Structures are given as C-alpha cells and as structure tokens.
Amino acid sequence: MRTRIRLATAATLAAIGALHVLWGRGSSFPFRNRDALADAVAGRRSVPSPIACNAVAGALWVATALVADVPLAPRRVRTIGRLGVATVLATRGAAGMSGRTDALSPGSTSPKFRRLDRNVYAPLCIALAAGALIAGSRKR
User: Fold this and answer.
1) Domain boundaries, the chain
2) SS3 letters for the chain?
3) Using one digit for the tens of pLDDT, what is the confidence trace for 52-62?
4) Which of 14, 20, 135, 137 would bridge with 57, disulfide CB 3.0–4.6 Å?
5) What pLDDT is attached to residue 24?
C-alpha cells in the first residue's frame, strides 16, 4: 500500500509540474483562456510570469523525485527533503482551508479562486503532504 501511495503522490506532483510548464509556455489548459486560468488558479487578473511558472514546475519535479525516493542524494538528505515537501504542502493546504492563501501568495483573492482553493487545491495539498509523509515512512 505504501508503494502505491508513494507512486500516486509522485505522479500527481509530476503532473502538476507539467501543467505549470504548459502555463509558462502560454497555454491556458484546461481553461478557455488565460484570463480564466488567472482567475481560477492564481486568483488575480494575470497569470504569473513564465519564469515563476517554470520555477514552480522545477520545485514540483524535485518534490516528485524526493517522494519517489530517486537515489540522487544520500538517504538522509532525501528523508529531510520529503519532510520539507510535506511541510510546504501542509502549510499551503492549511492556508487554503482557512481562506488565507493570500498570506502566502499576495493578491490571490478572487471569489472563484477562493472557492476552488478551499474545495480542490487545499485538500489536494493536504493529501499530497500526507502522501509525502507516508512515502518516507519505513516499514516496521
């Protein structure tokens, strides 16, 4: 079961990273246009810059490797990295659930974003945080 959770968590992080690359390249997928994307995903009038989108994608792919336990660093470093991933995702999830994502990302205040954040993004972040913790737990 732990392996399935680890793989599902890593795959989800990788897919979200791929979406950020698409957005950085100008795509509005899965929204009808860039304005709808900005409102739903960023909660503001404009989409973040390509550099910002690609930076988030890079962070998500590092998180993917950590959760998947790709042996690119010593085990202790990967363990600390997974704890960092879980902490960041749990913090993001808690901010979203409490309606305070704007404290982490100023300007994320549109009503559509707040609704999606509380119902989709924040619970997903919390689930991914749990997945990152489970991925790093050792069999007993």
Assistant:
1) 2-136
2) CHHHHHHHHHHHHHHHHHHHHHHHCCCCCCCCCHHHHHHHHHCCCCCCCHHHHHHHHHHHHHHHHHHHCCCCCCHHHHHHHHHHHHHHHHHHHHHHHCCCHHHHCCCCCCHHHHHHHHHHHHHHHHHHHHHHHHHHCCCC
3) 999 999 999 99
4) 20
5) 97
